[in-house]
Structure formats: C-alpha cells, structure tokens
Design a protein that fits this description.
single chain; alpha+beta; two-stranded antiparallel sheet
Length: 140
Amino acid sequence: MYVLLTVIHVIVCLFLVVVVLLQSGKAADLAGAFGGMGSQTVFGPRGSATVLSQETTIAAALFMCTSLTLSIMATRAGRGTPSLLDKAKKPVPTKTQPAQPQAQPGQTVPITVTPESGGKKLPSETVPVPVIPEPGKNKK
C-alpha cells in the first residue's frame, strides 16, 4: 500500500509540474510585463476556467492528499530513527549473572562456610547441604 501510494504521489507531482508549466500567466502580454492589467479590476480579468486550470486544481488537491497520507503512514509506522536525546535517555544494559536453577526438596546444595575460632578465621570449606521445604508451603 505504501509503495502504491508513493508511485501515485510521484506521478501526480510530475503531472502537476507539467500542467503548471504549460499554462500562461494572467498578464502574459506586453502590458503585463510593465505592471499594466487589461482591465480596472483589482485582481485582473477573470475569465472562465480553462481545462488546464481545472487540471491544476485537481492535481494540487491530489498532491496534498497523497502528501498527508504518506506522512501519516510514515509516522504511524514508527520507522523513524530516534533523536540523540532519546538515545541518551536509554539506560546502558548491564551484564547480569545467569539465574541459578531452583533447588527442589530432597536435593543437596553446595554452601561455602568460613569457620572462626577465637576471632581467628580458618580456611573456608564447601559443604553440601540438603534442601528442606519451608513449613506452610504446599508441594505441587
């Protein structure tokens, strides 16, 4: 849909350029070059609308409609790049430790123990400890 609308928009743009260039100005004669108008009206003589002026009006209306539609579609698609301020607001991801699997009752879990004797620390040991279920929790 987006590509089709873009193609239509480009065709309307080219048609609008050609139609505007084909038209002659309101005061295209020699008197118009020096500011003279053919009549005493404020905005110049107003004749019936020619085919080219009608096509210009239609092409201009189509150009505006396709421009608005394309801009709305581009905004809603959200494919625009974020601004520098938006990039600065994002937190920097930190490295996290992988989650430890949850131990089930009946299994053993290694625990590091550092014993003390008379205020003196002894070397630490790793001891396997059985997992005991918490009281009041139902087993699944």
